[in-house]
Structure formats: structure tokens, C-alpha cells
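hey so u asked for the seq, here:
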Amino acid sequence: MKHKNAWKYLSAMLFTALAFASFNSMAADKTAAGARAAHEKVVIQVSDDDPKKWNLALNNAKNVQDALGAANVDIEIVAYGPGIGMLKLDSEVGNRIDQAVAAGIKVVACENTMQKQKLSKQDMLPSAGYVPAGVVELIRKQHEGYAYLRP
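ran it, C-alpha cells below
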């Protein structure tokens, strides 16, 4: 009888150990998934020649950073077409662009638009970044899981 009880005891212990290990593994997976889910990505389109829209895009970006924490979100503003004025040296929102970039928001100009409008990098704000094609950048970012906003 002792032998059977020992096997029952060992079987119960083994089952408990396996269940506990499985539970810990699931909890670790859930924690890792939660950590991944906590990091957000947002791309914002600016394609209007409208300083009100430029300010709205910058407000959206700042509000997202404030709500989620700058370390928890990647934000990119893509200016192209008529919206390229947002990133010109004489832009009404130039100081806000510099502040956004300093806060970790990526702000990029479409080089296709610049070429069509005969703009060079010297015509643009020094804090601006560049992408070959604004529309393609929006497509790529969405494929990378970025949420898309167009104010």
C-alpha cells in the first residue's frame, strides 16, 4: 500500500508542478504581450495648405504623447503636396515643428513634392526629416502597424 500512495503523491506533485509551470509561462506571455501592446505607433498625414490643419496635426501628436507617454509611442508626421508648406523655413508653425522634433516626434517632408515645387533642403526647416515619397511612407507605416490619422 505504501508504494501505491507514494506514486499517487508523486503523481500529484508532478501534476501540480507542471500546472504551476504552465500558469507561470502563460502569465509571462501575457505580460510580454501587454508590454508589446503598450507601445503605440501613429502616422499623421498633412496634405493641406492650411495652418489650422498644421496646428491640429501638431496638437494631435502632442496629445497622443501626453496621454500615452512619449516613451510609449512612435509618432511620425508626413507632409506632402500642398501640406509641404508646414515644413518650409517661413512656416507659421516652424517653432512648433522644432518643439515636436525635440520631443521625439518625427516630422518628414516628401522629396517628390519638394522636387515638383522646386524646393531644396535649404528651403526647409532644419529639424525636418525627408522621405522619397510621402504617400509611400504612409502606406509603409500602415503596413508596419501604425495607426493613421488625418486631421
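The first strand starts at residue 40 and ends at 46. The helical segments are 2-38, 51-68, 94-102, 111-116, 134-143.
lmk if thats what u needed
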